Amino acid sequence: MDKSDNKIEEVVIPGNTSEHVIVVSEDKKYICDICHEAFTLESSVITHKDTIHNERKDYECEKCEKKFEFRSQLSRHQISAHKTRNDFACDRCEKKFVKKSSLFMHQKLLHKDRKDFTCDKCERKFENKSTLLKHKKIFHEVFKNYLCEICAKKFDTKQNLLKHIKGVHNGRKDFACDECEKTFGEKRNLLLHQNTVHGCTDYVCDICEKKFGRKLALFKHQKKIHEGVKNHVCNKCEEKFRKKSQLLFHLKAVHNDFKNYSCDNCGKKFGHKRTLLAHQKIFHEGQRDYACDQCEKKFAYKNSLFFHKNKIHEGREDFACDKCEKKFGLKWGLLLHQKTAHEGRRDFACEKCDKKYGQKSDLIQHQKIIHEGRKDYACDKCEKKFGVRSNLIVHQRAIHENCRDYICDNCGKKFTRKSGLLFHQKTVHEGHKDYVCDKCEKKFGDKHHLTRHIKLVHEGRKDFSCDRCEKKFGMKSNLLTHKKAVHEGRKDFACDKCEKKFGERSSLNQHQRTIHEGRKDYTCDKCEKKFGKKSNLLVHQRIVHEGCKNFACNECEKKFGVRSNFYKHQKLVHKIR
Question: What does the DSSP assignment read for 227-289?
């Protein structure tokens, strides 16, 4: 059809003050009521409005169902009509949201896998600010002992508390409630007031069930009314708790309540199946996925690797005891130390021997090893068995890998454990020996060595017999060494300088130190004579300076200071074998 053939007609458009007349062609009878443009099809008018005039109202208020064309209009409506603000701000791009769920969805879609938040204490990275704050609270929390008596806020130093009181509580109250005209010094207190007085009561005291509108009010109420009151008593160990939730957590964590999943290998119980599976993977399958890039030591947990680096390679111990100045790498280590060392608490008693422990894990370990005789951890290189997995690891590192990372600054002696180094320094170089034998006045650094000395020297006990030659030993380790060297002919440790072989690595180390290095690290404080072995020094002091000769021949009454000389005398003089 030719355009000149189109019919023309007048269309009346109603207006506010007068009627408007426009001229349109017959085939364009659909008119936009906003700009009066004419269209051939009705769908064209709808598309025109959507694109040009944006008549679609996709943003609906969830409180009154009113619809808006733009998000900004909805936000203004919510603030003015419902006093709702975009209180949920993204800590990465500062975009704000009315609903917390919208914020989470935004972060999940736009900021996935980004770790922009770095801990200023350990440089660990996190995806969001809340996770970073939680991490800092758990691992780097500074104890806040200074409490503001006005608002109950806590501070780490007295200076910060005074600064807070001066800045916040000095009489200025610039924030007024628009419902009751009450004024406040801080905006957050105004918001809390509005929520408490004019809003909800979500915080319930679990002791007396009184309700509060804000968490701070609940905290102040419990501190004032219920502080020191512990009405919730554990029916298993009689420990008392202020809150029922604390009692339930104690029952679950300490007394194995609600632990329905048992390990088939060791019988340990767990509250969740995933925890059981993780336990089996780590402890019974030996899976260690996290390796230290400095010493190649492997760990089952990422956190364990992190703490290992902090303590071993960086020497960080951020948690100090305020009573004895002892330092710890972990907060729970400090809390356990304070509980056992300074409060003297040993809450877990063995029902078979009445021995007490500060941790339930120590009690279980004691019962398993001492009363059940279980040694579940066997070395795959020498078949030696251990009751504790950590002792197996120490054994393998010390004996089969020769890993001795702790070196004495005074004499160069190496140790597998830090505790061994500290004990060595305390007893050998500092001379601290607080345990004295009441029979010969010999001194020892700990009770264990004193007990062993009395059993072997003064009681002459030899509880370990060889099943092949009936020879007896006072220590099990000596029996095992005897079996390996005498009956199996094994001397697995060869000197690389003279090819002499030894049954134990300690003997090899001592040989190299005294023979090839010529070291004599043990000096007599009375005559300054030097010895390569500590045992030789002790024998020298006992015989030469103390005149002790404890080994008397019952044939001729001759006395000896050394057991080996006594045996040699009986063998050569009296033909006693």
Answer: TT---EE-TTT--EESSHHHHHHHHHHHS-TT--EE-TTT--EESSHHHHHHHIIIIIS----
For residue 334, which of 67, 141, 174, 507 has the smallest C-alpha distance?
Answer: 141
- The burial of 93, by beta-carbon neighbours within 10 Å (0-12 exposed, 13-18 middle, 19 or more buried), is given as exposed
Partners of 97 in the β-ladder: 88
Query: Tokens standing for 479?
Result: 């029996």
Report pLDDT for 10. Answer: 45
* 365's tokens: 């370990």
Residues 212 and 200 sit within 8 Å (Cβ to Cβ):
no
For tokens 């002791």, the residue is 207
Enter the tokens of residue 491: 């001397």
pTM for this entry: 0.36
Q: Classify each residue of 4-42 as buried b or exposed e, where b means 16 or more C-beta atoms within 10 Å of its C-beta.
A: eeeeeeeeeeeeeeeeeeeebeeebebbbeeeeebbeee
Distance CA 373, CA 386 (A): 10
Q: Within a 10 A sphere around the Cβ of 49, how many other Cβ atoms?
A: 16
Give the HSE-up count for residue 169: Cα atoms under 13 Å, Cβ half-sphere: 11
CB 166 within 8 A of CB 159: no
Give the integer Cα–Cα distance in Å for 130 and 95: 16
CA distances (Å), origin 33, targets 10, 39, 45, 54 = 16, 12, 9, 13
- At 477, give phi and psi (nearest 5°): -60, -35
First to last CA, the chain: 136
pLDDT at residue 457, rounded to an integer: 83
Q: Which two tokens stand for residue 48?
A: 């025109």
For 139-153, letters b (16+ CB in 10 Å) and e give: beeeeeebeeeeeeb
β-strand partners of 436:
443
**With contact defined as beta carbons under 8 Å apart, do 328 and 334 qualify?**
yes
Q: How far apart are CA 473 and CA 481, in angstroms?
A: 10
How far apart, in whole angstroms, are the C-alpha atoms of residue 97 and residue 84? 11
Residue 21 is predicted with a pLDDT of: 42
Alpha-carbon gap, residue 133 to 152, rounded angstroms:
21
In sequence order, which ranges of 408-446 are alpha helices (DSSP H)? 418-424
Q: Tokens in use for 417? A: 């454990």
**Block means of pLDDT (10 residues each) for the chain, length 577 residues?**
46 42 55 72 70 62 73 71 66 71 71 70 74 73 63 70 71 63 70 66 70 70 69 73 73 64 78 78 79 80 78 76 78 79 81 81 82 83 80 81 82 81 84 84 83 85 86 84 82 85 82 88 88 85 85 86 85 84
Q: Which residues of 168-199 are buried (b: 16+ CB within 10 A; e: fewer)?
A: beeeeeebeeeeeeeebbbeebbbbbbebeee
